[in-house]
Amino acid sequence: MRSGVVVIAAAFALLAGCTSAPEPAPLIAPDTPGGSAPTVAPSDASGVVPPPPNDADRDYVSMMIVHHEQALAMTRFAPERAQNETVKGLAERIRYSQEPEIGAMKQWQRANNMVGSHGDHGSMPGMATQDQLNALGAARGKDFDRMFLELMIKHHEGALKMATDVRGAGRNVQVEEMADDVIATQTDEINRMKALLPTL
């Protein structure tokens, strides 16, 4: 009987020696947007540091905050001046999507020691002139609806150019994600506005 126990114990010991924990899967180290992403062992992961933001990342965030703020200024006219309910709904949608985006970009600036940084905003595409904003504020009804859509389509197209540019020139993962959100959201809104404009 004792020999049988010894055999069983030996068998368990042999099985224990054959079963070992699986090797951890390799991790993907972050790299520049569009670049290759090398894999590293989990034991080496603590030494992987994402590259810091470059000038393209910082300029994009700084300019896009101002770009979004102008869009919000345009949407604030809509509740009192727009006639078309779909235009009012689009304006509200734009406001609800861009307000939190501004908050996220300002938080990114604080995390990267960029508080108070404004950059060069003179070259931003799609921005309405002060005369155009004045005319939009003075318009009512269908005139407002058409002017709002025309200006906002151009404004969104400018934002798409900025977001596409930073995806090629920037290297910060968070900025790339913010740019991707702008591209997805504003492409959809451009399509909606272009489909609505001929019906007014």
TrEMBL record:
User: Residue ranges of the DUF305 domain?
Assistant: 57-197
Q: Which residues form a coiled coil?
A: none
* Organism domain of life: Bacteria
Q: Where is this region: Disordered?
A: 26-53
From which residue to which does the signal peptide run?
1-21
> What InterPro entries does the entry give?
DUF305_CopM-like, Ferritin-like
The answer to whether keyword Nucleus applies is no
Kindly state which keywords UniProt assigns to this record, in alphabetical order: Signal
Report what the protein is called.
DUF305 domain-containing protein
Which organism is the protein's source? Lentzea indica
